[in-house]
TrEMBL record:
<keyword id="KW-0324">Glycolysis</keyword>
<protein>
    <recommendedName>
        <fullName>Pyrophosphate--fructose 6-phosphate 1-phosphotransferase</fullName>
        <ecNumber>2.7.1.90</ecNumber>
    </recommendedName>
</protein>
<comment type="function">
    <text>Catalyzes the phosphorylation of D-fructose 6-phosphate, the first committing step of glycolysis. Uses inorganic phosphate (PPi) as phosphoryl donor instead of ATP like common ATP-dependent phosphofructokinases (ATP-PFKs), which renders the reaction reversible, and can thus function both in glycolysis and gluconeogenesis. Consistently, PPi-PFK can replace the enzymes of both the forward (ATP-PFK) and reverse (fructose-bisphosphatase (FBPase)) reactions.</text>
</comment>
<dbReference type="InterPro" id="IPR011404">
    <property type="entry name" value="PPi-PFK"/>
</dbReference>
<feature type="domain" description="Phosphofructokinase">
    <location>
        <begin position="6"/>
        <end position="300"/>
    </location>
</feature>
<keyword id="KW-0963">Cytoplasm</keyword>
<comment type="pathway">
    <text>Carbohydrate degradation; glycolysis; D-glyceraldehyde 3-phosphate and glycerone phosphate from D-glucose: step 3/4.</text>
</comment>
<feature type="site" description="Important for catalytic activity; stabilizes the transition state when the phosphoryl donor is PPi">
    <location>
        <position position="141"/>
    </location>
</feature>
<keyword id="KW-0418">Kinase</keyword>
<keyword id="KW-0479">Metal-binding</keyword>
<keyword id="KW-0808">Transferase</keyword>
<dbReference type="InterPro" id="IPR050929">
    <property type="entry name" value="PFKA"/>
</dbReference>
<feature type="binding site">
    <location>
        <begin position="142"/>
        <end position="144"/>
    </location>
    <ligand>
        <name>substrate</name>
    </ligand>
</feature>
<keyword id="KW-0460">Magnesium</keyword>
<dbReference type="InterPro" id="IPR000023">
    <property type="entry name" value="Phosphofructokinase_dom"/>
</dbReference>
<feature type="binding site">
    <location>
        <position position="13"/>
    </location>
    <ligand>
        <name>diphosphate</name>
    </ligand>
</feature>
<comment type="subunit">
    <text>Homodimer.</text>
</comment>
Amino acid sequence: MNLPNCIVAQSGGPTVAINASLVGVICASIGHYGTVYGSINGILGILNQHYLNLTELAASGKDTLQRLATTPAMYLGSCRYKLKDYHEDASDYEKIFAQFKALNIKAFFYIGGNDSMDTVLKLSSYADSIGSNIQIIGIPKTIDNDLMITDHTPGFGSAAKYIASTLLEIAHDTIIYPVKSVTIIEIMGRDAGWLTAASALARNSYCSAPHLIYLPESDFNTESFVEDVRDLLTVQNNVIVAVSEGIHDSNGNYISAGENSSDTFGHSQLSGAGKALELLIRASLPVKVRSVEINILQRCAVHLSSATDLKEAFLSGEKAVSLALQGVTASMVIMKRTSDAPYTITYDYAEIKNIANEAKSVPREWINARGNNVTYEMLTYLTPLIQGEVPIAYHNGLPNYMDVSHLSSQA
C-alpha cells in the first residue's frame, strides 16, 4: 500500500531548537508517511516548488539526525511571507493546495512563531472552505516566548540561558574596575519582556546583576529610571541594567535612539533603546556609561543551549505528527506545565484560531510595583527551562553543524 506523504517547513526568526523539532517530525513520520518533504524557505518553498527529501536524509542514520538537531537556525531556511486573505486573493492558496495534491500530501507541519501561526490559520481556513482533508498543524518556535496558551515555546529556554550567561559574564567584566559605571544591556523583546526577564537568572550568591530590569509590560519613565540608577550608585560602584528593546512610555511611545520602521507583518522595527538610555545617563550623571545591544546573538548560540529546550522541541515535533495521524487539524502543539518542582509538562494541542495574531505578555504581577525588577514567581517559571547541557560535535575547534549550502544555491 502506498502511504501518503507529508511536508514540513520552518519560518520566522532562527532559534537553537527549531531543527530539533524538525528531527522530531522526521522521526515520528517514518512508517506513517511515504516521503517527508522539506519546503525550502517556509511557505515560499511550496509556492516555488523547492523541496528537500527528508526521508532520504533520515536514511543517513542517527548520527546525521543528531547533528541536525544540534544545528542552529533553520536547516530548511526561513521566510517572512504574509499570505493575503484568500477572500481577496486566493492565487497563493490555489498554488499551495495544487502542490499538496501533486505531492500526495496528507499533512503539513509549520514550525514557527506568531507570524507562522497566522499562516497556519489562513491555510486551515482555506482548507475548510474547499473541503480539503489535509491536516495542518503548527509547531511552536520563538525565542520571544509570546505564543498564547502554551506554557512556553521551544527556542526560548536556550535563548534565556544565553542571556543569563551573558549577563553574568558582563558582571564579571564590570566589577573589576573600582570606578562608578553604568552598563545598559538591550535585549530583544518588542511586545513581550520574557527574554529580558531571563537576565534575572544571572543572579547568584555573589552577583546581584542585573540591578535593574525594565520590560515593555510596564510603562517606562525616564525620570524614575535616572533616579533608580542614581540611588544604586550611592551604595555600589557598578550598575548593570537589562532593558527590553520595546520599552515605552505611558503614551505608548517607544524609548528609541532612532526612527522606527515596520516589517512585512506590520511590526515595529525598533532602534536603540539601550543607546537612548546611555545618552540619558551620560547627560544626567557624572559616571562612565556604555550600552550593549545583544541583538541576534542568542538566537543561534548552540554552545549555550538548554538540554531541556532541545528535548521539548523534539517532542513537540513528534506530537505534531501524532496529532495529524489522529485527524487533528487547524491546531498548534502546546505544552502544559504540571509541576515546577520537579518540573514536568504534558503535550496537547489548541485550536489555531485562539493563538494566531495574539501575543502572550509577562503577567504584570511578575513585575515589581516600581516596574524595575521581576518577582520570585518569574524565577520559578524560568529556572527549569534552562537546565542541562547539550553535547555537540566539533571539528578543527569549531562546532560541526550541518551543511546548509542548499540555502545559498537559490537567489
